[in-house]
Structures are given as structure tokens and as C-alpha cells.
Fold this protein.
Amino acid sequence: MKKPLCVLLILLLLAVASLLLLPMAGMKFIPLWSEGKELDILLLFRFPRVFCAFIAGAMLSLSGLAFQTLFRNALATPFTLGVSSGATLGIALFIRLGLVFSLPGFSSLSIAAFCGSLLAVGLVYGLTRLKSCFSITTLLLAGIAVNFFFSSLVLLIQDFSDPAESFRMVKWMMGSLASADYPRLFNLLPFLAVGGTVMLLLHREMNLLMVGEDLALTRGVPTGRIKKLLFFSTSLMVAGVVANFGPIGFVGMMSPHICRLLIGADHRWLTPAALLFGGAFLAVCDTFAHSLPSGAEIPVGIITALLGGPFFIWLLLSRR
Amino acid sequence: MNRAIIQIENLSLSLAGNDILHAVSFAVTAGEYCSVIGPNGAGKTTLIKCIAGIHQKWNGTIRINGKPVHQYKSRELATLQSYVPQAEGRTFPLSVEEFVAMGRYPYQSAFSPLSADDHRAIDAALEQAGLVNLRARSMDTLSGGERQMAFIAAALAQETQILLLDEPSTFLDYRHQANVAALLNRACREQGKTVVAVHHDINTALSASHRILALKNGATAFLGTPEEIVQGRTLEEIYETAFVRSPSPERALPLIYAGGAL
């Protein structure tokens, strides 16, 4: 059997195992064969939480992969370039203004987050269009600036809010899966369905874009349209996660990069691998987050950031 | 054989307020090897990129097979012409074979595996470029010369009538320079492909080309045969430096090198 197929099968097994076994873990171990109240806890709280974590992780990983491919750099992800903070800004504005609007299948909160992330993606995209020879360092610095700018706007909005609204915003900004339940699970699914399908279908185009935009264009890829489609899907997936659980950083940077080391750079294998690995990764991180012996749950965003910070620096140092 | 496969009329392009190309007109016949030469910043790369469809905001007309280039879908255009960019040292961890297979993109649909035709084209391209033994190697472990051969092989796998190349042999060692020259010569003379190549080195352009286009400051400075360009003070006017023309034991055309007083 071909090596990438083997790796992908192992990742699939890992993902299924994480979905089936992780619900047993927590502050109290509950085996799958429990009954009564414990079975209720398992079915009503633990399973939806692990599934939510998996889907959120998969989407963060896929959107990270899309950015890494489009910008041809492992350090460029929606989180580092300010897309998450754009989505957070959208939500803060939404809560402050009390807007309610809705499209079938997507909550109004996610639409607000989507507008915010689309704004940030537009900013990043516009910056790269401004000068064709934009260096990756400039791009990352611009991402930091966008991040700071949006974060300050969020703080400003918070300052004008009453304590109840302000509390809601702070809870969101921590990045936690504590609010995971079935409605949120079903809210997340359409985001993954759309974003994941687009990315799995575009594996040839992403391979060519990774090599270079000029080359992709002359091989027959309608690069403008494909890039917009990828930016759109990325915004959608980031918005889905942020609207439901807040910004969770670094999954989108670590997971695709680790997968690239495991399975190679061919997106035919890399995209499904990133989906499975990212999902399992966040599910494991979240299980740690709520089963620490101290008894108190910590937001999963803190765990991923604690892992991701050193990883970012390692990537920065190992770059050729 | 006298059909113009590429027709360019009055091509002008400004980037950020600077005139890069100014009223360039020329035509390339099917099966011809046309070299584009000129000093640094003359607009050679820009011209190739205009033909390849990478630059799109120019004025004038570019026709491929008689049809304006912007009326083609990118996929359709990619079955007529392929492009080899200037080597820039960018690497990526794909195998040589995977990379060459990407040249088949315009013939594929989203989930279909490579067809028998695709495999035949990929094998032929690897064979011609002498990469059969390197097909499983990762692109980021190749030398500059091997990598350039892989880029040309990918363009050959695209099976197009036209090959556009931007400085295909600059920065290569002598063996790889000779390999690239032989490969392009065969593609043109034996397979009847049309080659438009930017060349930095005049002697390479002289020995390879049917015709030479020289650009200077974005405008046409010379268009004619290799025999004509070595006459008089044409080269001196293009490059604003003196040249020595030394008789070659190998060919009728002299060897050219910079030197002497203007």
C-alpha cells in the first residue's frame, strides 16, 4: 500500500478512537458501558463536547492549511494574520448592538463573526495585492497590526458595554469549549461541510498554488477565483468556530505543519490528514482542559496557546 | 509552416506609472524558435508574462492561434502554451514525478485519477528531460540544474504547441546549460514545438534561434535573424557596450563577448 494512504488510515483510526474513547475521560472516569445518570452525563455532555472539539479542530486545521498554502509559509494562519480577532470584533459588535438577523442554517451570531473574519481576510488580501513582492515578514507584521487594531476595537466596545454584555464578551474571548452541546454541534456542521468540501475538491489547485501563483495560472488554474473561494471558505470556518467557542489559537498552525511532516505536501493526502489530525488534536487538548486534577476547568485556548507559542518560535528558528 | 501562432500588436504595459513595454509588435510562426534578448530591465520577463497571461492589464493585442488571448479560458490556454518561470530557488516537498504530473492539470477533472494519456505524457517528459532516475526524489533535494530540468519537464508534460521560457539556463552549470539547450532544440526541431525564450546569454540565443527579438527600454530594438544581429553595430546599440566578434570553429556565426572600446 502507498505510504500516504497508510498514514491517512492510521490518522482515521486515531480520529475514530479519540471520538469514542475521549468521552470517558474527565474529572471522573465514566466507562462507555455505564448506566443511569452516568450514561446521561456521557450522552448529554461528554459526547457532544468531544464531537464539537473535533469539528472545531478540524475547521481550524483546514483554514490554517489554506492560509499556509496560499501564502506559502507555515507561520501564516488565520489566527496569526488577525482573522480570528476580526471574527471576535464582529461578535462584540453584534452583542453590543443587539442585532438579530438570520439565514437558514447559520445563526445570526455566526453571520456577525463571518462578516468580521471576512473583513480581516479582505484586509490581508488587499495588503498582499497592494504590492506583489510582499515579503512574508511584512505580512506577519501586518497581521500583528491588524490583530492589535481589532483587539483594541473589541476592548473599546467592551468599555461601552454594561457588565452583563461585557461578561459575555470576555467569556467568548477566552476560547473555551465548555458551552459545547448538541445545538452547537449542529450549528458547526454546515460550516465544516461547506469549507471541508471546497478544500477537498480543490486539492490539485492548492498543489499548484503552493508551487507558485504564476505557474498555477499558466497550468490553467483560474487563480483569482480559486483564491477567493479559499479565502471565503477559510473565513466561514474560522467564523463558525469563533462564533460558537471564541478564538482558539495555534491549532491552525501546528496541525497542518505536523501533517505535512507525516504525509508530505500533496494536498490530495494533506487536506484530509489535516482535517483528521486537527480534530483529534483539539479533542485531546480539550479533554486535558476539563479533566485536570485541580477540579477547575481551564479554557482550551490557553492549552493550545501554551503549546503553540513555543511551536511558533521553533518554526521561526528552523526556517531556511 | 508560415502560420503565425503568436501575434503581438502594439503591446504596451505600465506598472505603477512606469512604462515597462512600449508598442511592441512581433509575430512568431509555428515551429519557430524565437529568443528575446536585451539589457536588464528591458521588459523581457514582462513580455513573456504578458503572453503567458500572467500580466493582464496591458494595451494592444495578443493573439494565440488567431484568437485574442483574453478570450481563452485559463484551462484552454493552458493546453496551447506552457510557461517555465525564472528559477528563483523556491522549494517544496513534492516528488519530481508528482510535480511533473501537475503539468497535466488542464486535462484533468476534480477527482479523476491520472489517465493512460497522462501517464504516457509524464513518462515521455521525464525521459526527455533525463529525469527518469530522479522521478521519486523530492524536489527540495535537487540541485538547481536538476530542478530547472524538472520545471521544463512539467511544461513538456503539458503537451502544448508553444513553450514560453524565462531565462531557462541562467545560473546553471555548463552541463545543465548544454542539457537545457539540447532539450529545447529537440523540442523545436524534432517535435515542431514553438519556443519563445528569454535569454541572458547572446551566444545561447544565436545558436538556438531562428529569430531574435531584442528589447531596450521596453521597445523593440531589433527583430531579425541571428545572422543579421551580429552585423554592424546592432549589439552595441542594444547593450550600450562594446563587443568582440570572434570567429567560431563550430558555426558560421561568430562568438560574442563583451570587451574593447565602444
The interface with chain A takes residues 49, 52-54, 73-79, 81-83, 85, 90, 92-94, 98-99, 102-103, 105-106, 108, 110-111, 158, 164 of chain B (CB under 8 Å). Chain B has two domains: 1-80+162-262, 90-159. Residues 90-159 of chain B form one domain.
